[in-house]
Write a structure and sequence with these properties.
Length: 1945
C-alpha cells in the first residue's frame, strides 16, 4: 500500500535530538519554532536533502559530480519520501549581470527567439539583411521584377575613398561594358577620373534583361556572375530609372547591400550580455561604467573652489589632490578662461566647470616649484597642461588607488546607453520589434506585444513553442503581482519581496505532481496584503497532489496550514525536539512559544509613549529614483522609524538607493551614486552610519561568534596572561586555531578533516589527533578555572557569561548576546551553521557593545527575517535600547508587531512598480492606521488577517489520480490524447514503429524530467543534457521521471561490471580514504606520523622504560646508502659541529668524541642519538621535540630504541613523518587519491599497459615466418628483416656482434639453432649487459669508424620498443601484424600502478576485491571493520557499496565477478546490470519509464523483474513500461495499445484499458495476441527452388566441438542447413559466448587460440556467416531503406535514361540527394533545415527552396511516368512495387521488403526514425535479396524478437522459415518461447548464469526439450497449448501470474 505520510525515524542532523516525526503527504505543513531550534535542519538538511539526493542518484556519475553533491543526512530512515524541490532563502542576486529576465529565464528564451526567428538589420542603415541561396535570389527577383526591364548589378566599391582605377581595369578584362558610379551609368572605357579623397560607390552592370518566370536561365546566370564578382552581393534595379530608387539588394552572406557592413551569425550568444560575443565591449555587458561622478566631486555647490567646493581639495585648503595642482596655478588657468576661484561653484558657467573637471586641453600654463631643505634649495619653472579633475581621477582609479575610487560611481554606458548589448544584436528584429524594446516593457505591456508579433509562416513555426514558454514564465510573474517589473530591471535593484516572489515564480510553475516542495519562509519581504495571494499559490500546489513543507513564523501561514510541527523548546542544544504537532488549533493549546503566540500571549515591547525624536531630522527632497514620484519625506533623528509599504512600493529605493549613498558620501565612505533626488537636509547631525543585514558573518568554519564580536581576542589575552603561559613563553597567538604554533597541525586547527568522497558528498570527520579540540595537547594544558581554550569555545553564551562574569571586557558582549536572544549559541559555533537572523543579531551585538561618540544612524532591512515572534520581541527590545541611548534606528519592515512598536512610520504605496512610489502616509502607527489609502493601515486595522482566513477554502480541487496527455505529436504520434492511471503498472505496446517509445520516452519521460530539472540551478542544468520540451499541448498529473532505456551497447574494453554500476568509483574512494598504503616490495604499511603522535605512541607502549630517540642515517633503510664506514668518516665532524654527542653503532651507544673510533663494517647500522629518555608523561614535550629533530636529520625517518629492562627485551620502533618504508625507504609518489585506483586515468593506470591489464608483445611465431630459413635470409617477416638483420645500420651490426660473441651461426636455418640460441636472439635471454659495436663506413672522400655500446633485448625486444614509441599510425598498424596480446608483466593484469595495487582495506587489495563475485564482495563488506577515524569518513561509501551490490544480487547477478568485462556479458546480464543501477531508489511519487526491460531475459528472470516493478508501484510510484512480453502485460494494471500499424500508419491509441478489457477488444492486435490468435507456424511446403549448383546436399550440417570461452565448459553445437537451430537458456548461461564469440569467429577463419577444439564443415562449402541484429542501419537522415537495400541504384539509373535527363546532361549521380551534383544546395539534400532551439525541441523545417524534395530544381524537372525522383522516394514499398512493376531489379528488392512486412514503409524514410524491429527486418530483406543468388550461409540472429509485437513476430517467423527453406543454416539465440517452438532443434545451456552455466543441460526438438526434466526453459514451451487442455481456471486478479507459471508450480 502506498504510504499516506512521510515517516522520519532517528533524525540527528545538527541539533536534532534523534527526532521521530510523521508528516502527512499532500498537505500544507508548516514547521515552526524559535530561531535555532532546528526547523531548517529538519526541513532542508533532512527532508529536502534526502529527497533530492535520492532523485539525483538516478543521474549519471558525471552529472552528479557537478551538482553540489549531497551528503546523506544523519537519519536512520525516511519512508514515503518524494523527489524534493527547494525554494530557499537565498539572497537576491547581487550580481550586476543578473536581471529579471535572466532570473526567470525569459531572457534566455528571447535570445533563442531572436537568434532563430530574427531578421538582422544593418545597425547603420536599418536595412533588413537576409542570407539567401542564389536560387532564392533568382526567385525573389522574378517575383518582384517579372517582365520589367532591369539591370543586374554587382556592388564592388561601397562608400570608400580612392580613385579605384584597378576596379575599372578589372571590369575591362572581364569584358563588362557598363558600370554605375555614384548612381550614374557610365561606360567602363569612358569612366571619369574619381576624386581620391571623396567617397565613391561603384557597381558593375552584369546584364540588362527582362526576367521571365518561363525562361529564368539568363537571369540565373547574371545573378551567379554578379555574386561571384561582388563576393556574395547582387542588386537588381529598374533599367528605366537611372537612380537607385527602384531597386532591391540581396546577399548570400548577410552583408548590408547599402554599406556592405558584415553581420555576425545569429546565435543565442550574440544576444547575451554575459558572453563576449554579445556584450557591449565598452561596459563588458554591465550597461554601467564606474567613472568619477560630478555629484560626488562637488561637496557643497554654495562654496567657492578656494573655500573647498570640490571634495578633492586638500585638507590644507590651498591645492587639489587630483590633479596635484595648487590654487596659484589653478588661478592662472581660471584667468585664461575668464573665471576665478572665488565664485560659488553653482554660479560658475558651464564652460568654466568643464575646464575644472575635464581640463584645458593642450594649452600650457606657467608653473613654479620651490624646495628649501637643510642641504638643498632651489626652484624650477615650466609650462604644463591642466588635465582636469576627472581625467586625473580616472588615471588614479586605473591604478587602483582607494583615495580616488571613493569619487567613482556607476553610470550608464555611453556606447550602449545601458542596453548592455552590441549594436549588431540590438539591430535584429522579430516581427519588426527589437530586443531592446521588449526588455524595457513592463510585464503587463510585454505579454500583448509578444502575442501580437507579426511573423511570417516560417518565423511563426519557429516562434510557436518559444512564445508559449515565454508567456508561461511571464504569466508566473503576473500571478505573483510583479506585472510592473521590466525584464531589463537589474536583480541588484530589486527589493527583498520582489526577489523572493521572482524565485517563487521561477520554481512553482513546473506543474509537477507528487513532489515535495520545501520553502524557507516564503513570506519574507511580503506585505500583509500579499499573504493571501501567497497562501493561494501554496494551497494550489498542495491541491495539485504535492506535499508542501514551509518553514514559517507568520501567523497567517501557520493558521492556514493543514498541519504544524513545532520544534523546540529552545534553541541550539536546548532545541531539536518536536514539542507539538497537529492542526493549528491543536498546536495553539500547547505550552510552547508557538502555542502562546497563536493564543496572542506574546507581546513585542513598544515605548510607553511615541518618541518625537531629538528635534533634528533627515529630510529627502524630491525623491525620484526608479518609481518614486518626487515626494519629500522626513526621518526624525533620535527615534525608531519604520519604512513600510507593499512589495515594489519603493522602500528599498528610498533607503538603499538614496539615503544610504548620500550618508556614505557625507561620511566620505566609498559607495554608489545616489538615486535621483533634489537634496538631503540635516546631514550635519549624523556622525556615523551602521548598515546591518542578514549576510553571513563568515564564509568558513574558522569564523564564529567569538571571533566576529572580538570577544575571542580578549579571551586569548587572558589565557596568555596566565602563569602557566608565561612560564612556557606562550603569547596570545598560541591560543589561536588560525595560526601555526599552538593549533593541531594534523587538522590545521579546524578540529575536523574534510574527506572528499568524489561521487558522494564530502564528509567532515573529527580529527583523530586532537579529538576535535583544534589545539595541541601542550596548548590545552593551560587552563582558566579548569577550562582549556577548547573548553571555552564549546561553552554557550550563558555558560561563558558565568565563567567570565568578573572580566567586564568579556562579559559585556556576552550580556548583549543574551539580551538579543543568542544565549544558546556556543562561542565556537562555525559561522557557516548560523542562520541569517542569527548573523544579523550577532552584527547588532558588535554595535551594541560599542560606546558611540557621535550620533549614529542604524539602518536595517527586514531584521525579523527568520525570527520567531519570541525572538522578534528580544530584537525590538535591543533596538529600543539604541534609541534610548540617543541614536536613530531606521528599519524596512513588514512585521506588524515591529510596525506597532515604531515611533514613526513612513508608508509608501499604494501599490508596487508604476502604481507605487508615493508617500501614502507618515506619522505614528495610529495615524497611519487611519489612512484609508494605506495598505499598512489596513493591516494594522486587521483587514488582511480576516481575508487570509478565507483562503484555505478557495480550492476544492483534489489531486489527479490519472496522468493525462493532451495532443501529443512527437515523431509519428497523431494528436494523441489519453489518460493513464497514476501509481499503477502501465504497459504500452503495439507493432514496431507504432509510437510506443515516442509516447512513453520522448513525450512523458522527457517532459517529466525536464520539469524537475528546471527546478535546479542553471549551473546544474548544463551538466544534465538539454531535454527539449516535447511537442505536446500539456501533460497533467506528471511527476518527476526516471528512465531505464534499452541500450544496445556491448561495452568498451575498459568497461567492467564494477565501472558500469559505479561500484568501482565508490571502491576507489574507499581504498583512497580508508586504505593502508604499503611498500610494494616489503608490504610494510607506509604511515606518516608527526612528532606529537610519535610521542603518544611511545609513551603508551613503553611508559616507565628507558631508551633513545635516534636519527637512522646509515645502514638498512637509512637516510644515505653506501659503505657505512666511509660515510661515518665523511659526516663525523659535521655531526659534532651540530652538537651531537652520541650514536648507536649496531645497537651499542658510542660517544662521537671518543679517541677510539667505533669499529664499522660496510653494512653497519649507525643511528645518531638525538636524546636519551626515561619514557614518562613528564617527558612528552621533550620526546616530541626530539622526534622533530630526528626527522629533520634523517629525511623524515625517526627511530625509537627501547633499552632492555629485566625480563623485558629491548625494542626498536620505526616511524616516518613522510610515510616511508622502514626497510627500504620507499614512499608514496602521490598522496592516496581516488584517481590512483582508476585504470581509466593516466595517474592511476599501469604505465606499461595503459590500464588495460594486457600488453602487446612481439609474437615470435609471427615475426619468424619461415623457421626453415636463416634469420638473415628469409626467416623473418620481410618488412622487419630489412631493419633488423639486413640493413647497414644500428640494428644489423648489433645483431651480428651478439651472434659473434655468443658464437651463433646466423646462416643456419633458424629451426636448427638450439633453444638457448633462439631465446638469445629473439628475447635476449642470457645476453650480456652491454655489447661494444664498431661500424666502418667508406665514402669517396672519407673513411668513418663509428663505435657504440648497447644492451641486447632481442629481435622481439626491438619490435616491442618500436611499438611503444611510435606515433605514426601506418607504422603502428604494420607492427601490430607481428604483435600478440599477453597479460601485462608489469601489473600482472591488475591494471593500476604499484602503490595502488598493494594498498589494503581490511587486508584486501583492490585488484583482489574486484576478482570476487558480487555475493562474496557483499559478504566481505558486511564483516568489514575499520578504525574509527576511517570508518567515520567512509561510512556513506560502504553503505552505498552495500546498496549497489545488494541490488545486483536481488536481480539474480550475484554470481558475476566485479572485474567481468561488459562486452562479455550476455544481453540479459547487461540489461539487469543497467536495471539494478536505476531501480535502487526508495522514492515515491516518481514516474519510472522502462523501455523493454525484458529484452534478453529468460522467462524465469522476467518473473523476478516484474516482481520488482510491482514493488515500485506498491511503494507509490507510476511505472510505464514499453513492452511486448505477454507475462508482463497480464500482470499490468493498465495497457495502452498503439497502432494500428507502424510509421505513418501508426501513432494512434487503438485501445486502452485493463488486460482483461484489451483481451476482449476485437480491434486490438494486442488483444488478439492475448487471446492466442496470433500463433506462429512453419510452412508445410517443400524447400524453395534455386540454383542446384548453390545448394548443399540434404542433411548437411556444421559442428563446433569443445567451445570453452568465458564460462563455457567444452560445449558442442550443431546446426543443419535448411533448418532453424535455436539456442536458449537462462541469462548469462553462455549463449552469446557460444555463438557470437566462438562460432562466428570460427566460421570467419580465426585461429582457435584455445577457444574451441575443432570446427566440422560440409565439404566444398565456403564458410559465410551473416549477423543480423537490431542496431540502426544508419546514423544520419541521409541513410534510408532505399539506400541501404541498394534500391536507389536502379531508380537513379532509370531516371538518368529518361529523355529529359539526357537533354540536360544529368547522369545517375545527379539523382542522389547525397551528391553535390543534384541535391538542393540550401538544405544539402536533407529536405529540411535544422533550427536549434536550445531549451526546446530542435525543429526540422521544410526547406523553402526545394519544399522538402531534397533535390535541385533542374533534377526535379526530370519525370518518369509523370513522377520525379522525389515523388518515387515518397512512395511506400507497396506503392513503388506497383509503380516500378516493369523493372525487375527494383521489383526484386521491393518484394523482399514487402515479404518481411514493411510494405507500409516509405522508401525515403530516414533510417534514424526506424525502430529496432524495422531496422532488423530491413537487414533481413537485404539478406533475402542477396541470398537468393548466393550459396547457403549461416545466418545468426541474436534475439530477433527484441522490440517486436506479436504481430511482428509472426512476420519474422515467416522470414526465418523462408531462409531455412532456401537452404541456409539459421541459428537463433532467443528467449521468445513461441519462436523457440518453431525451431527444428534446440540446445539449452545452463542451468544458471555465470559459473553456474556454460553446460548443455538439454538438447533435441522443442517437444523433447519441453519434456526434459533438467530443462529450465521446457516448462515455458507449449504452455498455452497445455493451458487450453485444462479446465477453465477461477477468475484471476489483475496482477496474477500467467497460467503457464501456475502450471509449472
Amino acid at each position: 500500500m502506498t504510504t499516506s505520510a512521510i515517516r522520519v525515524r532517528g533524525a540527528r542532523v545538527h541539533n536534532l535530538a534523534n527526532v521521530d516525526v510523521e508528516i502527512p503527504r499532500h498537505r500544507l505543513v508548516a514547521i515552526t519554532g524559535v530561531s535555532g531550534s532546528g526547523k531548517s535542519s529538519l526541513a532542508f538538511d533532512t527532508l529536502f536533502r534526502e529527497g533530492q539526493r535520492r532523485f539525483l542518484e538516478t543521474l549519471s556519475a558525471y552529472a552528479r559530480q557537478f551538482l553540489g553533491r549531497m551528503e546523506k543526512p544523519d537519519v536512520d530512515a525516511i519512508e514515503g519520501l518524494a523527489p524534493a524541490i527547494a525554494v530557499d532563502q537565498a539572497a537576491a542576486s547581487s550580481s550586476p549581470r543578473s536581471t529579471v529576465g535572466t532570473l526567470t529565464e525569459v531572457f534566455d528564451h528571447l535570445r533563442v527567439l531572436f537568434a532563430r526567428a530574427g531578421v538582422p538589420h544593418c545597425p547603420k542603415c536599418d536595412i533588413p539583411l537576409r542570407s539567401m541561396t542564389p536560387e532564392a535570389i533568382v526567385q525573389a527577383a522574378l517575383e518582384e521584377f517579372d517582365g520589367q526591364s532591369v539591370l543586374v548589378l554587382a556592388p564592388l566599391v561601397r562608400d570608400r575613398k580612392g580613385e579605384h582605377r584597378d576596379v575599372f581595369e578589372g571590369l575591362k578584362r572581364r569584358g563588362l561594358v557598363r558600370a554605375r558610379v555614384d548612381g550614374a551609368l557610365v561606360r567602363v572605357e569612358e569612366a571619369p577620373a574619381l576624386a581620391r579623397y571623396v567617397r565613391h560607390t561603384i557597381e558593375a552592370v552584369v546584364d540588362r534583361l527582362k526576367p521571365s518566370a518561363a525562361e529564368p536561365a539568363r537571369l540565373r546566370e547574371a545573378v551567379q556572375t554578379a555574386l561571384e564578382l561582388s563576393s556574395g552581393d547582387v542588386i537588381v534595379a529598374r533599367a528605366d530609372s537611372g537612380a537607385a530608387a527602384l531597386e532591391r539588394g540581396w546577399s548570400t552572406s548577410r552583408n548590408c547591400p547599402g554599406c556592405g557592413a558584415d553581420t555576425p551569425p545569429l546565435e543565442p550568444r550574440l544576444f547575451s550580455f554575459n558572453s563576449p560575443h554579445g556584450a557591449c565591449p565598452s561596459c563588458e555587458g554591465l550597461g554601467l561604467q564606474r567613472k568619477p561622478s560630478e555629484s560626488r566631486l562637488v561637496r557643497d555647490p554654495k562654496l567657492t573652489i578656494r573655500e573647498g567646493a570640490l571634495a578633492v581639495t586638500r585638507k590644507q585648503g590651498d591645492a587639489l589632490s587630483y590633479p596635484h595642482v595648487d590654487f596659484e596655478f589653478l588661478s592662472r588657468v581660471a584667468e585664461a578662461f575668464d573665471f576665478d576661484l572665488d565664485t560659488p561653484w553653482r554660479e560658475l558657467s558651464r564652460s568654466a566647470k568643464k575646464v575644472v573637471l575635464y581640463g584645458a586641453g593642450d594649452e600650457r600654463f606657467d608653473d613654479r616649484f620651490e624646495w628649501n631643505g637643510a642641504k638643498y634649495q632651489g626652484s624650477v619653472e615650466w609650462k604644463r597642461r591642466f588635465k582636469g579633475v576627472i581625467p586625473a581621477l580616472q588615471q588614479a582609479g586605473a591604478k587602483g588607488q582607494p583615495a580616488a575610487l571613493k569619487y567613482f560611481s556607476a553610470q550608464a554606458c555611453e556606447d550602449c546607453s545601458g542596453t548592455r548589448l552590441k549594436p549588431a544584436a540590438l539591430a535584429v528584429k522579430v516581427g519588426g520589434v527589437s530586443l531592446r524594446e521588449l526588455l524595457n516593457l513592463s510585464i503587463a505591456e510585454f505579454e500583448p506585444r509578444i502575442v501580437g508579433l507579426a511573423l511570417t509562416q516560417r518565423e511563426a513555426r519557429i516562434a510557436r513553442d518559444l512564445k508559449a514558454e515565454i508567456l508561461r514564465r511571464s504569466a508566473f510573474l503576473r500571478q505573483v503581482g510583479l506585472e510592473y517589473l521590466t525584464l531589463a530591471r537589474g536583480a541588484d535593484t530589486l527589493s527583498g519581496g520582489e526577489a523572493q516572489r521572482i524565485r517563487l515564480a521561477a520554481q512553482l510553475g513546473s506543474a509537477l505532481q507528487g513532489v515535495m516542495y520545501v520553502l524557507d519562509e516564503p513570506s519574507i519581504g511580503l506585505h500583509a496584503r500579499d499573504h493571501a495571494q501567497l497562501l493561494g499559490a501554496l494551497q494550489g500546489l498542495r491541491d495539485g497532489g504535492n506535499t508542501v513543507v514551509v518553514v514559517e513564523h507568520i501567523e497567517a501561514t501557520l493558521r492556514a496550514a493543514d498541519h504544524i510541527i513545532d520544534v523546540g523548546p529552545g534553541a541550539g542544544r536546548n532545541g531539536g525536539r518536536i514539542v507539538a504537532s497537529g492542526t493549528p488549533e491543536e498546536v495553539a493549546q500547547a505550552d510552547t512559544p508557538t502555542g502562546r503566540f497563536l493564543r496572542g500571549e506574546l507581546k513585542v515591547p513598544a515605548p510607553e509613549r511615541r518618541r518625537a525624536g531629538n528635534g533634528h531630522k533627515l529630510a529627502i527632497r524630491g525623491a525620484r529614483a526608479f518609481n518614486l514620484k518626487g515626494f519629500d519625506v522626513q526621518f526624525p533623528l533620535g527615534a525608531l522609524t519604520v519604512v513600510s509599504g507593499v512589495s515594489g512600493s519603493g522602500k528599498s529605493t528610498l533607503i538603499e538607493r538614496i539615503l544610504t549613498p548620500v550618508l556614505r558620501a557625507h561620511l566620505e565612505l566609498e559607495g554608489d551614486e545616489p538615486g535621483e533626488h533634489d537634496s538631503v537636509e540635516g546631514l550635519k547631525h549624523v556622525g556615523d552610519l551602521v548598515w546591518i543585514d542578514a549576510t553571513p558573518i563568515g564564509r568558513t568554519p574558522r569564523s564564529n561568534p567569538a571571533t566576529y564580536t572580538g570577544v575571542f581576542d580578549v579571551i586569548r589575552d587572558l589565557f596568555a596572561s596566565l602563569p602557566e603561559s608565561k612560564m612556557r613563553g606562550y603569547t596570545k597567538s598560541r591560543f589561536s586555531f588560525n595560526v601555526a604554533g599552538g593549533r593541531c597541525e594534523a587538522c590545521g586547527g579546524a578540529g575536523a578533516k574534510l574527506v572528499e568522497l568524489q561521487f558522494l558528498a564530502p564528509v567532515t570527520v573529527e580529527c583523530d589527533e586532537c579529538g576535535g579540540e583544534r589545539f595541541q595537547a601542550q596548548t590545552l594544558d593551560v587552563r582558566f578555572k579548569e577550562h582549556s581554550i577548547a573548553d571555552v569555545l564549546a561553552l554557550t553564551v550563558d555558560e561563558a557569561l558565568e565563567l567570565f562574569k568578573d572580566h567586564p571586557k568579556i562579559a559585556r558582549p556576552l550580556e548583549v548576546m543574551r539580551e538579543v536572544g543568542l544565549s544558546y549559541l556556543t562561542l565556537g559555533q562555525p559561522s557557516t551553521t548560523i542562520s541569517g537572523g542569527e548573523a544579523q543579531r550577532i552584527k547588532l551585538v558588535t554595535e551594541l557593545q560599542k560606546r558611540a561618540r557621535s550620533h549614529t544612524v542604524y539602518l536595517l532591512d527586514e531584521p525579523t527575517t527568520g525570527l520567531h515572534p519570541q525572538d522578534v520581541a528580544k530584537l525590538v527590545g535591543a533596538l529600543q535600547k539604541l534609541v534610548d541611548a540617543g541614536h536613530s534606528v531606521i528599519l524596512i519592515e513588514h512585521n506588524l508587531d515591529v510596525i506597532r512598536a515604531a515611533d514613526h512610520l513612513i508608508d509608501l504605496g499604494p501599490g508596487g512598480g508604476a502604481n507605487g512610489g508615493e508617500l501614502v502616509a507618515c506619522g505614528t502607527p495610529e495615524a497611519v492606521a487611519r489612512e484609508p489609502r494605506s495598505a499598512t493601515g489596513a493591516a494594522l486595522r486587521g483587514e488582511f488577517a480576516r481575508r487570509s482566513k478565507l483562503v484555505e477554502d478557495a480550492s476544492e480541487r483534489r489531486p489527479s489520480d490519472v496522468l493525462a496527455v493532451v495532443d501529443a505529436n512527437t515523431h509519428n504520434l497523431k494528436h494523441v490524447s489519453l489518460e493513464i492511471p497514476r501509481d499503477s503498472l502501465v504497459v504500452l505496446t503495439g507493432p514496431s514503429g507504432s509510437g510506443k517509445s515516442s509516447l512513453a520516452l520522448d513525450t512523458i519521460y522527457t517532459e517529466g524530467r525536464r520539469r524537475f530539472v528546471e527546478s535546479l540551478s542553471t549551473y546544474a542544468r548544463q551538466f544534465l543534457g538539454n531535454r527539449d520540451k516535447p511537442p505536446v499541448e500539456r501533460i497533467e498529473g506528471l511527476g518527476p521521471s526516471v528512465a531505464v532505456e534499452a541500450s544496445t551497447s556491448r561495452g568498451h574494453p575498459r568497461s567492467t561490471v564494477a565501472t558500469t554500476t559505479e561500484i568501482h568509483d565508490h571502491l576507489r574512494v574507499l581504498w583512497a580514504r580508508a586504505g593502508t598504503p604499503r611498500c610494494p616490495t616489503h608490504r610494510t604499511p607506509l604511515v606518516a606520523s608527526d612528532a606529537a603522535r610519535i610521542a603518544k605512541t611511545v609513551l603508551k607502549a613503553y611508559a616507565g622504560r628507558k631508551g633513545w630517540v635516534v636519527a637512522p642515517l646509515l645502514g638498512p633503510g637509512g637516510a644515505e646508502s653506501g659503505d657505512a664506514a666511509e660515510l661515518f668518516d665523511k659526516h663525523l665532524q659535521a655531526w659534532k659541529a651540530a652538537g651531537f654527542v652520541r650514536a648507536l653503532v649496531d645497537g651499542v651507544e658510542q660517544r662521537l668524541d671518543a679517541t677510539n673510533k667505533p669499529k664499522l663494517t660496510p653494512t653497519s647500522r649507525v643511528d645518531l642519538v638525538v636524546d636519551r629518555f626515561n619514557f614518562d608523561a613528564a617527558s612528552r614535550a621533550r620526546l616530541a621535540e626530539a622526534a622533530e629533530q630526528a626527522a629533520e636529520h634523517a629525511s623524515g625517518r625517526v627511530s625509537v630504541v627501547v633499552a632492555p629492562a629485566g625480563d623485558n627485551e629491548g625494542a626498536r620502533l620505526e616511524f616516518s613523518t613522510a610515510g616511508a618504508c622502514a626497510e627500504c625507504g620507499h614512499r608514496l609518489a602521490h598522496k592516496l587519491d581516488p584517481r590512483l585506483f582508476s585504470f581509466n586515468t593516466h595517474v592511476g593506470a599501469c604505465a606499461d599497459c595503459g590500464g588495460l591489464g594486457v600488453a602487446s608483445r612481439c609474437d615470435p611465431a609471427k615475426l619468424v615466418v619461415d623457421p626453415n630459413l636463416p634469420l638473415v635470409d628469409g626467416a623473418l617477416h620481410a618488412k622487419f628483416a630489412r631493419y633488423l638483420v639486413k640493413g647497414k645500420g644500428y640494428y644489423e651490426h648489433l645483431f651480428l656482434q651478439v651472434a659473434r660473441e655468443h658464437k651463433v651461426d646466423v646462416r643456419k636455418p633458424f629451426a636448427k639453432l638450439s633453444a638457448a640460441q633462439q631465446a638469445l636472439l629473439l628475447h635476449g635471454v642470457g645476453a650480456k649487459a652491454q655489447y661494444s659495436v664498431t661500424i666502418d663506413r667508406e665514402s669517396a672522400n672519407a673513411e668513418i669508424e663509428e663505435r657504440f655500446t648497447a644492451p641486447w633485448t632481442g629481435l622481439c625486444g626491438h619490435v616491442d620498443a618500436w611499438h611503444r614509441k611510435t606515433e605514426d599510425a601506418e607504422w603502428s598498424a604494420l607492427l601490430e601484424t607481428v604483435m600478440t596480446t599477453v597479460r601485462c608483466p608489469t601489473c600482472e593484469g591488475e591494471r593500476i600502478g604499484a602503490d595502488a595495487r598493494v594498498t589494503t582495506v581490511g587486508k584486501a587489495r583492490l585488484p583482489e576485491f574486484l576478482t570476487w563475485s558480487v555475493s562474496r564482495a557483499l559478504a566481505w563488506l558486511a564483516e568489514l571493520e575499520l578504525p574509527r577515524a576511517a570508518s567515520d569518513a567512509v561510512t556513506p561509501v560502504v553503505a552505498e557499496l552495500r546498496s549497489r551490490l545488494a541490488l545486483l544480487e536481488k536481480v539474480g547477478l550475484g554470481y558475476l565477478t566485479l572485474d567481468r568485462a561488459t562486452h562479455t556479458l550476455s544481453g540479459g546480464e547487461a540489461r539487469r546490470v543497467r536495471l539494478s543501477a536505476n531501480l535502487g531508489s526508495q522514492l515515491v511519487g516518481v514516474c519510472y519509464v522502462l523501455d523493454e526491460p525484458t529484452v534478453g531475459l529468460h522467462p524465469g528472470d522476467v518473473e523476478r523483474l516484474t516482481d520488482a516493478l510491482r514493488e515500485l508501484v506498491e511503494r507509490g510510484n507510476s511505472v510505464l513500461v514499453v513492452e511486448h512480453d505477454e507475462s508482463v502485460m497480464r500482470r499490468a494494471d493498465y495497457l495502452v495499445d498503439m497502432g494500428p500499424g507502424a510509421g505513418r500508419l501508426g501513432g494512434n491509441v487503438v485501445a486502452s484499458g485493463t488486460p482483461d478489457e484489451i483481451e476482449a477488444n476485437r480491434a486490438s492486435l494486442t488483444g488478439a495476441a492475448l487471446r492466442g490468435e496470433l500463433s506462429l507456424a512453419r510452412s508445410e511446403t517443400a524447400p524453395l527452388e534455386g540454383d542446384p549448383a548453390l545448394r548443399l546436399p540434404a542433411g548437411s550440417k556444421l559442428r563446433l566441438v569443445g567451445a570453452v570461452g568465458n564460462n563455457l565448459r567444452e560445449v558442442d553445437f550443431e546446426a543443419r542447413f535448411g533448418a532453424i537451430s535455436g539456442l536458449c537458456g537462462p541469462s548469462g548461461a553462455g549463449k552469446s559466448t557460444l555463438i557470437l564469440d566462438t562460432l562466428a569467429p570460427a566460421l570467419n577463419g580465426e585461429a582457435p587460440n584455445g577457444r574451441w577444439k575443432k570446427l566440422e564443415l560440409p565439404e566444398e562449402w565456403t564458410p559465410r556467416v551473416v549477423l543480423i541484429d537490431a542496431t540502426p542501419i544508419g546514423r544520419t537522415p541521409s541513410s534510408t531503406p532505399a539506400t541501404y537495400t541498394g534500391l536507389l541504384e536502379p531508380i537513379r539509373e532509370l531516371f538518368s535514361r529518361t529523355p529529359d535527363a539526357r537533354m540536360l546532361g544529368l547522369g545517375p549521380s545527379h539523382f542522389s540527394f547525397n551528391s553535390t551534383k543534384g541535391r538542393c544546395p540550401a538544405c544539402e539534400g536533407k529536405g529540411a533545415q535544422l533550427v536549434e532551439m536550445q531549451f526546446l525541441a530542435d525543429l526540422w523545417l521544410e526547406c523553402d527552396e526545394c519544399q522538402g524534395r531534397r533535390y535541385a530544381p533542374a533534377v526535379l524537372d526530370v519525370k518518369y511516368r509523370g513522377k520525379s525522383v522525389a515523388d518515387v522516394l515518397d512512395m511506400s514499398v507497396d506503392e513503388a512495387l506497383e509503380f516500378l512493376a516493369a523493372h525487375p531489379q527494383a521489383v526484386s528488392i521491393l518484394k523482399t521488403l514487402h515479404d518481411v512486412g514493411l510494405g507500409y514503409m516509405s522508401l525515403g524514410q530516414s533510417s534514424t526514425t526506424l525502430s529496432g524491429g524495422e531496422a532488423q527486418r530491413v537487414k533481413l530483406a537485404s539478406e533475402l535479396f542477396e541470398g537468393a543468388t548466393r550459396a547457403p550461409s549461416v545466418i545468426v540472429l541474436d534475439e530477433p524478437s527484441t522490440g517486436l509485437h506479436a504481430s511482428d513476430v509472426q512476420k519474422l517467423a515467416a522470414v526465418l522459415d523462408r531462409l531455412a527453406r532456401e537452404g541456409h543454416a539459421v541459428v537463433l539465440i532467443e528467449h521468445h518461447v513461441e519462436l523457440l517452438t518453431l525451431c527444428d532443434s534446440l540446445v539449452e545451456l545452463g542451468p544458471g548464469g555465470g559459473v553456474h552455466g556454460g553446460r548443455v543441460i538439454a538438447a533435441g526438438t522443442p517437444r523433447e526439450l519441453a519434456a526434459h526434466p533438467a530443462s529450465v526453459t521446457g516448462p515455458y514451451l507449449f504452455a498455452r497449448e497445455r493451458a487450453r487442455s485444462l479446465a477453465p481456471a477461477a477468475p484471476r486478479k489483475r496482477s496474477a501470474r500467467l497460467p503457464t507459471q501456475e502450471l509449472r508450480s
